[in-house]
User: Fold this.
Amino acid sequence: MAHGEHGHGHRHDAHGHGHTHAHGHGHGLANGEDEELSFAAPRPGDQKRIELVWPFVREQLAGLGPGSVLEIGCGVLGGFVPLLRAEGHRAVGVDPEAPEGPGFVRSRYEDYKPDADELPYDAVVACLSLHHVEDLDALLASVAAQVRPGGLLVLREWAREEFDEATACWCFDRLPEEALGADENADENAEGDADENAEGDADEDPAARTPAWWLAGHRQGWQESGGSWDDYFQGWAEGHGLLSGAAMLDALERSAFETVLLERDPYFHTALVDVTADEERAAVDAGVIRANGLRYVGRRRSG
Ligand SMILES: C[S@@+](CC[C@H](N)C(=O)[O-])C[C@H]1O[C@@H](n2cnc3c(N)ncnc32)[C@H](O)[C@@H]1O
Assistant:
């Protein structure tokens, strides 16, 4: 999976741009594929992002009481699953890169066959995974069939089309010192995917050790492109098959979920260690940059 704020290891994803053999090996695709999985360590910033997004997820689910919750694309750290379980939910995280252990299944959602006792879900949550999905309409139809009427879909996403030149430059001006020496593998860094030898990168490249590593990758990728930001970034996003925020919202509009909350929120502060969410929001409110975060809650329509 690609993009901006993440990066893990080997991707067996819808876009086929998986490519890391970072660390560890595992077997156990839920769909029975006898394929060896290699998976990576988390990238800097992953844990911070989970912690910053969790209060939003927790608040949305508060009214449900303990229930059955699925996380799509929980990531190598397990995303919200441990936190959901601590709240009393029966939570399962599905991701080709999910950690080992109870509550995790190493699989794409599309290939996952839930146990009967998981269904119907009371809620499905996802953070930065749906923009990687190849056929979001099909995925949402499948999710809708597994969520009970009145159940929730809670998403935190990236509206990557809002990452315009002014926003990018604002971020680049705030990169921490160690991120300025981005390594040579700019595209891989920009992708946010973990890439060849992620461990080695982190050892050798100070930029790879900061949560802003992917922003540093974009800065360098743009410089090296020699072209406009728009051409560089659009080419990058389309090259990786990343859905835009608008495309995701269109698919949600067509789905069996009724929108109950839709907000744009600060996005880059999870990567820019010296920037707070309030400072980023102030820059958005002043019209200096665009809000790149999307928060969505949908309720499964009955019938
Ligand atoms: C940017 S990471 C986010 C991980 C985690 N949610 C977080 O916020 O730290 C995107 C994750 O989505 C997963 N992913 C992408 N497409 C998926 C799919 N079709 N089914 C399950 N997981 C998927 C990737 O493997 C990756 O771990």
